[in-house]
Amino acid sequence: MRQPHRLISLDAMRGFTIAAMIVANFPGSEEFVYFTLRHSRWNGLSFTDLIAPFFLFIVGVSIVLAYARKRADGSPKGPLIQKIVLRSLKIFAVGMFLNLLPDFDFATLRWTGTLHRIAIVFLVCALLFLTTSWRQQAWIATLTLLAYWLAMTQIPTPDVGRVVLEPGQNLAAWLDRRYLPGRMWQGTWDPEGILSTFPSIVTGILGMLAGRLMVSPASQTAKVSYLMTAGVFTAALGYFWGLTFPVNENLWTSSFVLVTAGFAALVLGAVYFLVDVLGHTSGTKPGVVFGANAITVYVLADLFALVFYRLKVGGEPLNEQAVASLTAVGVSPELASLLYALLFVGINFIPAYVLYRRHIFIKL
Description:
Elements: H1 8-25, H2 51-72, H3 77-100, H4 114-131, H5 134-154, H6 171-179, H7 194-214, H8 220-241, H9 254-277, H10 285-292, H11 294-308, E1 312-313, E2 316-317, H12 318-328, H13 333-357
Antiparallel strand pairs: 1-2
Keywords: Acyltransferase, Membrane, Transferase, Transmembrane, Transmembrane helix
EC number: 2.3.1.78
InterPro entries: HGSNAT_cat
């Protein structure tokens, strides 16, 4: 394998994914949000449901770009593994810190979350990349999805006595109630729980398989063709699997893995063709700026939210006042909520741009 030139397309895709995550996480008003900017209540797929799997897919691609040359050069694995473990622990620790905000109430601490899952997926996928071939990775991904499907659809939930895929009653929820420490996001179950983490690792593995293609000696047009073909095939396979094992982000079902990874491959292929092959880089700068310090921006958004979503002026939080002011002049509540979210993205862009201009790239 060879190391390609830096992929502007991947940097931009990472950055715009983080920007979309901020929009989804921080609307002007939780009450007024366009339906596709909400997570699906259960089965189904909205725009927001694509954000987390896209980021994990990008994590997988980035692992290959970061470690391909070191693996090819025969660099000692010991120091690399130590750095991978340390970085995973740092990301997990930052996730715990954010979960403690703003009250630092350890009694209600949640031990799972977006950064926690990113840390676990990065750890497992990076170790797999260093110790297995791409064929072995493909087999691990396939067997994991099949095993998860069989477990969720064939093993009865112990306290229910039958197979159930409904919220809080399925096997994954039962395992979380029994073994997951701390508070769960939905009280009796958690979307980033124990069992659903296994298929989320497969999302990262599929990203690694795409990354292996990107560092292969294939021509640029061949890479685009392979990515687009694989994307269509994977998404279609996920759709048909979803007829019996529904596409569901909360359970991170096997069908959800394939559909979202297929879409991620299609987007990466399209952006790679436009940006890295044809050279159309205009419009990519915001994504590249966000992508250069993606996790830092994610953390800053949570910190800034303490001011822009919790600070009360005149008895009302700033976001509620802004939405109320916009609706008072005729803007629909949903649009007002989205405009405030976009404003918040712009606020987060300022420190991200300062870091980028000063060539400061914070790596956990």
